[in-house]
Amino acid sequence: MSRRKPKKASFNPSKPNNNQAKKRGGKRDGRKLSKTKRANLSTPDGLSSAVVSAFKKNPSKIMNYKEVSREIRVGNKMDRERIQAILENLVTQNQLEELGRGRFKLNLQGETLEGTVDSTKRGGAYIISVDRDEDIYVHAKNMNQAMHGDTVGVKIIYRRGKEEGIITKIIKRARTQFIGTLQMNDRFGFLVPDNDKIGVDLYIPKTKLNGAENGEKVIGEITDWPSDSKNPFGKITEVLGDAGNNDVVMHSILFEYDLPYEFPAEVEAIAETINFELDPEEIKKRRDMRDILTFTIDPHDAKDFDDALSFQVLPNGNYEIGIHIADVSHYVQPGSIIDEEAYNRATSVYLVDRVVPMLPEKLSNGVCSLRPNEEKFTFSAVFEIDSNGKIKQEWFGRTVIYSDRRFTYEEAQEIIETGEGELHEEIGIMDRIAKKLRKKRFRAGAVSFDRVEVKFELNQEDNATPIGVYFKEAKDSNKLIEEYMLLANRKVAQYIGDKQKNKNPKTFVYRIHDKPKPDKFDQFANFIVQFGLNVERGENANISKSLNEVLDAVKGKKEGNMIQTLAVRTMAKAEYSTNNIGHYGLAFDYYSHFTSPIRRYPDVMVHRLLQHYLDGGKTADENEYEEKCIHSSKMEKQASDAERDSIKYKQVEFMSKHLGERFKAIISGVTDWGIYAEIQENLCEGMISIRNLTDDTYVLDADNYCIIGQTTGNKYQMGDEILVEIKNADLSKKQLDFTLADSLEKPEPDYGKEWDFEI
């Protein structure tokens, strides 16, 4: 959906104002009225339309028939009398309302569109409506106490010939509780929300502080919002503590995105009753794979292991490779308290310094986790594969396994690189097959987004203070695991959804990803030309192939991360749905999430549906599962936003030790309020306010990702290299403020052990 903001009106001394136009008769805004418009006024329908348009252009204005006549440039007595009749008729049609005798106003309670408020930092908003392809812009003065996320009714109006909206009613508040910092004076306080999209502070009387003190992080609730008040009235419901405390900050981030940070006591209590020991009767119902070599490969600090691989050579020379997934659905039954909690969360949340799991620790790290030297119940996808990576046979079902060995990614990588170490032959064969699977995938049109990931090294004493930055890049061991997980996810989805095999495919939970929108992709293509890069366009273009070539060409270059980020933004957002459209980015016709039920609820749904169909069950209720898909997609986005906020906070905290220092940076974004730039050495991002560019008046050229000086013609464009100085590190806003520097004259910091970059 677009986010086109209306262009600002600019002062032009050569353009007469409306009063000047009136004196000259027949001109408005410096333009002559067309003969067509004049002619329209001669017909009843044309005159009626002109009257309605006059009110829509002035939605808050009350006018009588004389004022309306002047507004639409009608001067003769007959037409003015007709206008009086039209006004009365429009009242009966509910398009206008009469306020006292002969005084009329646009009826804002008539037909409205319903939508969701997406607020801007300037107080206005865009209304996202399912009934419209384009979002509806609402000026700050027409918000009528609506807030970010609210479901509202909006009526279309026109300003300066452009479509806008005015909010007529609030259908549903997104939230009434807000987290922020308390600011006190002698007589009262204000809760300043952390989310700057909220746009207003909450007025807190002294009698409703609940013991909160100035500067503390608090949760407040709206109690009243008088129609004549700019600010809502509220009360403090919870005091979190010192705004600078790390735990308080992380809890604040979770609260902001409506994410829990602890389990209810009753959920924990039930989880503790689950037995580690495997039920012998259940074992008999499963395929026993305990005697087959099985191992895990995970990050060195992993606590939950939800996937394992098994390997054996078959008598015919082919290989049997099993992808074994923790059988969460065996322990978490539909409708149970644990299941309801897992569904509400829908995903684990990975903040910089902690994981907020979807399942209680007893399940996630214990009962379900595929820990080494333990027997576990699993749900498996088992394949017979030849040395070229061709699938000969497939099998899906419940199993019991024994994990023989746990490898870290680093250990597995060393085995792959050296060809030596424990299980080097088995891992070597699996790596070679994985590489062939990967090659096939890219040949089919998959898009490669192998982005460098920024990680923080935290102080071991408090596990909170960032003391170093390092870059994490996927290596062969990571890609090995990735390919087999992709294989399982794809084949499970294909088994259920393949229309060639199944005449009536059953309801299933798919992971879908649409094609890039042509307008966004064209904008991206036009932009990268300046870097000597080109992508194919058009209906028959091989977009994925040419996009991969671009991404490969910029790898390791200073503008590489920026172009990769921009390329990602051109792509559609992957989501969950029962309506399969395939996965464009992976070039799969069928794709699901099957491999991570410890941390993703959709995977639990996939396990349940798959077993139901393996048992011969009828198709599930599509509407029920589509609703669950929508919820899961929503929670995934909220978790992702929370994770991003925690990273931003740590970036600001880390760079706060480098105030006044200068760094090389790449412009990573441009807006009409400033330039965003990314420091090359650590990828920390900050902003240069447009107010601080004092050499000229700069305006945004969104199509070309730049701002341009109106007098000098100076241009700042995404991808440009600039020098920045760290001006301010605002932890409360999670924002770094930069200023432009003209040189690196100030000594660059001696990072020493503080900066730790790993490529």
From the helix content, strand content and strand pairing, which structural class follows?
A: alpha+beta
How much of the sequence lies in strands comes to: 25-35%
| Helix percentage | 25-40%
Number of domains: 5
| Residue runs with pLDDT of under 50 for 5 or more positions | 1-39, 749-759
User: Measured on Cα atoms, how large is the radius of gyration?
Assistant: 31 Å
Please give a quick description of this structure.
This protein has 759 residues and is of the alpha+beta class. The two termini are 36 Å apart.
Describe the SSE topology.
Layout: H1 18-24, E1 27-28, E2 31-32, H2 35-40, H3 44-57, H4 65-71, H5 77-92, E3 96-98, E4 104-106, E5 113-119, E6 125-128, E7 136-138, E8 151-159, E9 162-172, E10 177-184, E11 188-193, E12 202-205, E13 216-224, E14 233-242, H6 246-256, H7 265-272, H8 280-284, E15 287-288, E16 294-298, E17 307-313, E18 319-326, H9 328-331, H10 337-345, E19 349-351, E20 354-356, H11 361-367, E21 375-385, E22 391-402, E23 405-408, H12 409-418, H13 424-443, E24 453-458, E25 466-472, H14 476-497, E26 510-512, H15 518-528, H16 543-554, H17 560-570, E27 575-577, H18 601-614, H19 622-655, E28 662-670, E29 674-679, E30 685-689, E31 698-701, E32 706-709, E33 715-717, E34 721-730, E35 735-741
Parallel strand pairs: 15-22, 16-23
Antiparallel strand pairs: 1-2, 3-4, 5-6, 5-8, 6-7, 8-9, 10-11, 10-13, 11-12, 13-14, 16-17, 17-18, 18-21, 19-20, 21-22, 24-25, 26-27, 28-29, 28-34, 29-30, 31-32, 32-33, 34-35
Helix pairs in contact: 3-5, 4-5, 6-19, 13-14, 15-17, 16-17
